[in-house]
Write a structure and sequence with these properties.
Structural class: mainly beta
Order of helices and strands: EEEEEEH
Number of strands: 6
Low-confidence stretches: none
Helix content: under 10%
Mean pLDDT: 93
Shape: globular
Largest sheet: 6 strands, antiparallel
Number of domains: 1
Strand content: 25-35%
Bound molecules: zinc ion
Length: 85
């Protein structure tokens, strides 16, 4: 990914792989929000627990998209987003 993905809602750095960033993600089929690492694709149920290695899940969701900063402004998780102005 390049600097363009500053458009997505960043919540942290991945504690699993140590090199990916964690973004708020939305599953297409269910509109469910969760957190996913851009690199190793580890998943967390919410940004509240995304710094915990013990709370990680894998392949719990179907096709999903990173949530944009514009969209997260309407969601309660925006308080966890680190790159929102
Ligand atoms: Zn990772």
């Amino acid at each position: 990914m390049n600097t363009k993905d500053i458009d997505y809602a960043l919540v942290g750095d991945c504690p699993i792989c140590g090199q990916g960033r964690q973004f708020i993600t939305k599953e297409r089929h269910t509109d469910e929000y969760y957190v996913m690492c851009e690199d190793c694709e580890s998943e967390w149920v919410s940004p509240v627990e995304c710094d915990s290695i013990n709370k990680v899940r894998r392949e719990n969701h179907g096709p999903s998209d990173f949530v944009t900063l514009t969209s997260i402004n309407l969601h309660s998780w925006k308080e966890h987003v680190k790159n929102l102005n």
